[in-house]
Amino acid sequence: MFGFARCFGAYGGYGDFGPGRGMGAGMFIMGIFFLIVIAILVFLVVKYIKKDANITKNTINNGVNNEALNILNIKLANGEISEEDYLKRKEALLK
């Protein structure tokens, strides 16, 4: 019974840990640590999503440009357009 009373603060209100000892600072530091870890994870996820979106966007744009350039090359090869017209159109596509 004596140990039970001490654990619940019957002697000075601090239990077995004594005055000024507790988990206040430790819990605060651990909370800050977990906030930093969560912030880093969110940063990495956002960075990965943006990178993936840029790769997809560039792939789509390059696919369209490549298809248009292929058609333009075929038209030049078949003699449907002049070389001057080809260069103008190619420049416009590459902008």
From TrEMBL:
Task: List the transmembrane segments.
Answer: 25-46
Organism superkingdom: Bacteria
Arranged from A to Z, the UniProt key words for this protein are: Membrane, Transmembrane, Transmembrane helix
Q: Does the keyword Transmembrane apply?
A: yes
This protein is called SHOCT domain-containing protein
- Its source organism is Clostridium homopropionicum DSM 5847
